[in-house]
Amino acid sequence: MNPTPLRFRPVIKQTIWGGRRLGETLGKPIGDQGDYAESWEVVDHGADQSIVVGGDAAGKSLQQLVHQHADWLLGKHRADSTGQFPLLLKYLDCNRVLSVQVHPDDQYGAQMPVPDRGKTEAWYIVASEPDSLIYAGLKSGVDRDALSKAVADGQTEKVLHSFHPAAGDVVFIPAGTVHALGAGLLVAEIQQSSNTTFRLFDWNRVGADGNPRELHVQQSLEVSDYQSGPVAARSSDQSAAGWQELVRCDKFVLQALENGAATISGDDQFHILTVPSGTARVGDTQLSAGDSVLLPAAMQQTDVSVDPDSTLLAMHLP
């Protein structure tokens, strides 16, 4: 197949905490309701599949590409493939505060009744209201006993580190980090392709049936990281030209291009690109806010550029 940027039809998720900004700000195909919470841009996880739109691979799922064209798609990482694309890119519109959650690591995930990867993730803040909060990490000195007591007393918020994020901030959430996204946030998230989530606290809310939602307190206490403490936001130098590395871990690398031009591909590995704001170009492909593409490993080195007041995010395996 011709190695050109792959565009996918997004997988749209609706929940009570969603809003309308996925459509109004990012141009996603939403309907008349106001509860559009997530747009999964690049996904190969069970029934949730990215489907290629246009080009030689039109109609194929990402899973089919992994199975049928591993060399072309994954390049030097094909030998590490488990038969599943390893990363998942999504946008989230948080119209209300999400539950307090924690994700296990790969070792714990592999031992679950339905095995899955662990889940390390990073957030890029696309938009934030003045009173929006991010909860990331435990306050210094909070151990398992203190967290357990806070949850039992309905006071989990008191032991969580929180801060007001700004658009352009990046928050790295390794597996084991207790966290929650607050109301008013529009976020791009890169993560391991996993759905291993334990709900620790849900703000003492009840569901539509009048009952509290299910919590996973014991599992959360088992996998929580009690050593790292508070998580701080990271930010790029918005005056710098070329790629800036925002996160590097053993699961993915996240970079941003905010000024000028650069190159990408030609390194025998795939790259995921998305534009959280503004406009950008990848070779001859024009991208607008909310657009995402996957560059297969077979692509040759390609020029990329951003227009003023624009951001292009790039993600690949380390």
UniProtKB/TrEMBL annotation:
<dbReference type="Pfam" id="PF20511">
    <property type="entry name" value="PMI_typeI_cat"/>
</dbReference>
<dbReference type="InterPro" id="IPR014628">
    <property type="entry name" value="Man6P_isomerase_Firm_short"/>
</dbReference>
<feature type="binding site">
    <location>
        <position position="103"/>
    </location>
    <ligand>
        <name>Zn(2+)</name>
    </ligand>
</feature>
<dbReference type="InterPro" id="IPR051804">
    <property type="entry name" value="Carb_Metab_Reg_Kinase/Isom"/>
</dbReference>
<feature type="domain" description="Phosphomannose isomerase type I catalytic">
    <location>
        <begin position="7"/>
        <end position="112"/>
    </location>
</feature>
<keyword id="KW-0479">Metal-binding</keyword>
<feature type="active site">
    <location>
        <position position="199"/>
    </location>
</feature>
<keyword id="KW-0413">Isomerase</keyword>
<keyword id="KW-0862">Zinc</keyword>
<dbReference type="GO" id="GO:0005975">
    <property type="term" value="P:carbohydrate metabolic process"/>
</dbReference>
<dbReference type="InterPro" id="IPR011051">
    <property type="entry name" value="RmlC_Cupin_sf"/>
</dbReference>
<protein>
    <submittedName>
        <fullName>Mannose-6-phosphate isomerase YvyI</fullName>
        <ecNumber>5.3.1.8</ecNumber>
    </submittedName>
</protein>
<dbReference type="GO" id="GO:0008270">
    <property type="term" value="F:zinc ion binding"/>
</dbReference>
<dbReference type="GO" id="GO:0004476">
    <property type="term" value="F:mannose-6-phosphate isomerase activity"/>
</dbReference>
<dbReference type="InterPro" id="IPR046457">
    <property type="entry name" value="PMI_typeI_cat"/>
</dbReference>
<dbReference type="InterPro" id="IPR014710">
    <property type="entry name" value="RmlC-like_jellyroll"/>
</dbReference>
<feature type="binding site">
    <location>
        <position position="121"/>
    </location>
    <ligand>
        <name>Zn(2+)</name>
    </ligand>
</feature>
<feature type="binding site">
    <location>
        <position position="179"/>
    </location>
    <ligand>
        <name>Zn(2+)</name>
    </ligand>
</feature>
